[in-house]
Specification:
Layout lengths: L1 E2 L17 E7 L6 H20 L6 E8 L2 H13 L3 E7 L10 H6 L4 E5 L13 H6 L2 H14 L5 E4 L5 H20 L3 E5 L13 H8 L2 E5 L1 H10 L2 H14 L1 E2 L10 H21 L3 E3 L14 H8 L3 E3 L4 H13 L7 E10 L6 E5 L14 E4 L11 E4 L5 E10 L4 E11 L12 E6 L3 H10 L5 E5 L4 H11 L2 E5 L5 H16 L4
Parallel strand pairs: 2-3, 2-4, 4-5, 5-6, 7-8, 7-10, 9-14, 10-11, 17-20
Antiparallel strand pairs: 1-3, 12-13, 12-19, 13-18, 14-15, 16-17, 16-19, 17-18
Helix pairs in contact: 6-12, 6-14, 8-10, 9-10, 10-11, 13-15
The structure holds manganese (II) ion.
The site of manganese (II) ion has 5 residues, from loops.
Length: about 525
């Protein structure tokens, strides 16, 4: 069992997740003798270095051990559980590693597991191949032994098959690492709720205790007075600095510009943002919710503040929706450094023109400018609900391109993730009377199949729109969490989707709670 010293562990500078690591273990056994094991170790280190060097892989990859004994495997799994920097284990049976040795370690492991089924050699050396070569390149054999025991133990994992230099292999490892970083984030994630759920709304509510047990997220309620206290305490210089940022980053409506007629409303909005930032930062909160039904002491519903906090990576959910606030944060973490933004979203209204059916998504105010196709404009307009002064908001269209919509619901006996592949479309019409941020999309495989399936699954109106990630990442996250994923894809058919719902009911309702 060779194990790295701490000084070998690098910091991850230059990767999107500095300080986070994937540990790679090679499985083998002592039977092969020291010379063969030295070759195993040299090849494993080379494989590890190549994966580490890939731009597709967003964390440092640490060659943690060549595993040759049950005790050693258990120690590495326990160390992975205890290491805050470790997002998960990747294992590759370089040679044959009798799998009874893995029972104790895999039974103890609480971090995500990636089974990397690769082989040092890419091509068969037909004219030179002998039994020594066969014995050194036998993951086809050893990984089947490992997969058997992992399956028998019921260990959730992702299996990636492919040569370690193949970009497709590296991309799949990288996607899994992003999901593991999201899962890692969930376990420290704190959501602050200003006010409770919007009264009488069902889908945004749910079991917060179960969410902490299943997903690690903790959700803390506050009175909106705690926020107004933080706003009052925010230094004038903070508010002034935010106003300067607004003036420089956005196309400002004339009435909001310095000396504009409604500049005072922009100052109110900036004070809300300053208060939110100091409150969330002081409490270690990376996500939050508010509700227009509880705005005591606020002059306007937080609009631009929620939008800009999302752009900085905070999760947000409207109307007390803590599930979506947490998901927005987790998907922002998962998409870090990739092209394409991530936003809180809501299915709002349809264009049902025959043959060109589309969804117009938006919210009252709170859509993240990370998905904007152009520089947002900063505007102030009336809002019919909330009973406060006109809120300041950023107005823009979402950038066209592929995306995925993800939502979580509480079915009473379990959480279900619902996801839908879609294409965000350019908005070619003017929308002079709709001064909010908006996204227009066509869900896959088509509007009718996707919408009928989403409704059949009880899918919510609030969701995360990720223009950075695809369904693979969502699937990996659901596997790590052990929660149901109902995925509506480009090749889905409605009968098959409805069958999946029936099968999932049988499969998941017996597993949870
Ligand atoms: Mn809403």
């Amino acid at each position: 069992m060779q194990t790295l010293s701490d000084t070998d562990v690098r910091t991850g500078a230059g990767k999107p997740y500095p300080g986070l690591e994937l540990w790679l273990l090679a499985g083998s056994q002592d039977m092969y003798g020291a010379e063969a094991l030295a070759q195993v170790e040299a090849q494993w280190r080379e494989v590890c270095a190549a994966i580490d060097a890939s731009d597709s892989v967003p964390v440092r990859v640490i060659p943690r051990a060549v595993a040759t004994s049950a005790d050693g495997i258990l120690r590495v799994c326990q160390a992975a559980n205890a290491a805050p920097e470790c997002i998960g284990l990747a294992v590759w049976m370089h040679t044959f590693s009798p799998a009874k040795m893995w029972i104790a370690g895999l039974s103890a492991l609480r971090k995500p597991l990636l089974h990397l089924h690769t082989q040092y050699n890419e091509r068969l050396p037909w004219s030179e191949i002998d039994m020594d070569f066969m014995n050194l390149n036998q993951s086809a054999h050893g990984d089947r032994e490992f997969a058997y025991i992992a399956t028998r133990l019921g260990v959730r994992r992702k299996t990636v098959v492919g040569h370690w230099r193949d970009p497709r292999t590296l991309d799949r490892i990288g996607t899994w690492c992003r999901a593991a970083c999201g899962w890692h984030e969930a376990h420290g994630l704190k959501v602050a709720r200003f006010g409770d759920n919007m009264r009488n709304v069902a889908v945004t509510d749910g079991d917060k205790v179960e969410a902490q047990i299943r997903l690690g997220i903790s959700i803390d309620g506050y009175g909106v007075g705690d926020l107004t206290d933080a706003m009052a305490a925010a230094p004038a210089s903070d508010v002034e600095a935010l106003l300067e940022q607004y003036d420089s980053e956005y196309v400002m409506a004339p009435e909001l510009q310095p000396r504009g007629a409604r500049r005072a409303s922009l100052e109110d909005a900036a004070r809300i943002e300053a208060g939110l930032r100091s409150f969330l930062s002081a409490g270690g909160y990376n996500a939050f919710t508010d509700t227009f039904e509880d705005l005591h002491g606020l002059t306007q519903l937080p609009g631009i503040a929620a939008q800009r906090l999302m752009a900085d990576g905070y999760g947000f959910g409207g109307e007390g929706d803590w599930k979506t606030a947490a998901l927005v944060r987790i998907f922002k973490v998962m998409g870090r450094g990739l092209a394409g933004g991530t936003s809180f979203m809501e299915d709002y209204t349809y264009d049902l023109t025959p043959g060109n059916e589309r969804v117009l998504g938006s919210h009252m105010l709170e859509v993240c400018p990370s998905i904007a196709t152009a520089r947002p404009s900063c505007e102030i307009h009336p809002l019919g609900i909330g009973g406060r002064e006109d809120p300041v908001r950023l107005v823009f269209d979402a950038a066209p391109g592929p995306a995925v919509l993800v939502a979580m619901l509480d079915l009473g006996d379990r959480f279900r993730l619902v996801a839908n592949e879609l294409e965000v479309l350019p908005i070619e019409e003017e929308l002079p009377k709709l001064p909010v941020a908006r996204a227009l999309w066509r869900p896959a495989p088509d509007f009718f199949t996707a919408t009928e399936a989403w409704l059949s699954a009880g899918g919510p109106h609030h969701s995360v729109l990720s223009c950075a990630l695809g369904l693979d990442a969502v699937t990996d996250l659901a596997t790590m969490a052990g929660i149901e994923l109902f995925a509506i894809k480009g090749d889905s058919t409605l009968p098959q989707l409805l069958n999946e719902l029936r099968w999932n009911d049988r499969s998941y309702s017996q597993q949870c709670r």
